[in-house]
C-alpha cells in the first residue's frame, strides 16, 4: 500500500512539475515577444528603464521556472533525493518572491489611478523632448495606442508649449493621427492637428483606451498567477512527501 502511495505521489509530482515547465516556457516566450515585438512595445520597453528591467526579469523567471520544472520532473521520475531537495528550496524562494510581489502590488494599487497618472503627466511631461525618458515613453504610448494624454488633449493645456510654436496651447505631435501607429507612420495632417482641428487629433484619453485593451488580460493574468501559486504550493508538498518516502 505504501509503495502504491509513493508511486501515486511520484506521478502527481511529475504532473505538477510538467505544468510548471509549461508555465515557464509561456513566460519565457512572453518576455521574448515583449522585447522583440515590432508593433510598438519594444520601443516603449526600451524607453522606460523600469519596463526594460521588468521584461528581463520576466525572461529570467521564465527560464528559471522552465529549468525548475524540468529538474522536478527528473527528480520525481528518477526518485533522486538531492534533486527533490534542490527543487523544494528553489521553488520555495520563488513562491515567497511571487507572494511578496503580489502583496506589494495590492498595497500600491492606488498609485495606478487616473488622478495619479494625470498629476505625473502634468508635472514631468516635456512634449517632444525624446532625451527625457518620461516624455519619450508617454509619446510612444500615445502613438502606439492612438490616444492623447490620460483623459484627452485637455491634459496638456497647463504644460508649456514648444518655444518655437506660435500656438498658445500646442497639441503634442504624439496626439496627431497617423496612417500607421508608429513613430515612422506618416501624419494624416500634422499642421491642422497642431492648429487644434479635432478631426485630425486622437481625442480619447490613454487611460480609458489602455484599460479597455488590457482589462481582459488583467483578469486572465490574475487568475494565471493564482493558478501558478497553487501549483507551486502543491508541488512543494508532493516534493517533501516524496523526499521522505524515498528510502
Automatic annotation (TrEMBL):
The keyword rRNA-binding does not apply. SUPFAM superfamilies: Tetraspanin. One of its GO terms (cellular component) is plasma membrane. Keywords: Glycoprotein, Membrane, Transmembrane, Transmembrane helix. Its main location: membrane. CDD domains: uroplakin_I_like_LEL. The chain crosses the membrane at residues 12-36, 56-77, 84-108, 217-243. The keyword Membrane applies. It is found in: Membrane. It is a multi-pass membrane protein. Belongs to the tetraspanin (TM4SF) family. This is Tetraspanin.
Amino acid at each position: 500500500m505504501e509503495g502504491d502511495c509513493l508511486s501515486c505521489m511520484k506521478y502527481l509530482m511529475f504532473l505538477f512539475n510538467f505544468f510548471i515547465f509549461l508555465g515557464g516556457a509561456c513566460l519565457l516566450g512572453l518576455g521574448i515577444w515583449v522585447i522583440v515585438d515590432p508593433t510598438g512595445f519594444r520601443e516603449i520597453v526600451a524607453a522606460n528603464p523600469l519596463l526594460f528591467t521588468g521584461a528581463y526579469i520576466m525572461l529570467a523567471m521564465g527560464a528559471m521556472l522552465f529549468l525548475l520544472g524540468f529538474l522536478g520532473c527528473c527528480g520525481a521520475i528518477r526518485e533522486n533525493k538531492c534533486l527533490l531537495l534542490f527543487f523544494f528550496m528553489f521553488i520555495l524562494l520563488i513562491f515567497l518572491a511571487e507572494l511578496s510581489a503580489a502583496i506589494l502590488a495590492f498595497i500600491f494599487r492606488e498609485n495606478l489611478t487616473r488622478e495619479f497618472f494625470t498629476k505625473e503627466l502634468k508635472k514631468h511631461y516635456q512634449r517632444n523632448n525624446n532625451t527625457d525618458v518620461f516624455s519619450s515613453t508617454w509619446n510612444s504610448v500615445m502613438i502606439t495606442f492612438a490616444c492623447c494624454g490620460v483623459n484627452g488633449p485637455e491634459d496638456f493645456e497647463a504644460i508649456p508649449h514648444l518655444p518655437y510654436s506660435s500656438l498658445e496651447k500646442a497639441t503634442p505631435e504624439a496626439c496627431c493621427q497617423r496612417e500607421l501607429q508608429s513613430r515612422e507612420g506618416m501624419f494624416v495632417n500634422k499642421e491642422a492637428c497642431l492648429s487644434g482641428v479635432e478631426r485630425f487629433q486622437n481625442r480619447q484619453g490613454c487611460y480609458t483606451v489602455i484599460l479597455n485593451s488590457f482589462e481582459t488580460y488583467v483578469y486572465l493574468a490574475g487568475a494565471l498567477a493564482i493558478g501558478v501559486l497553487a501549483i507551486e504550493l502543491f508541488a512543494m508538498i508532493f516534493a517533501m512527501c516524496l523526499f521522505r518516502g524515498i528510502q
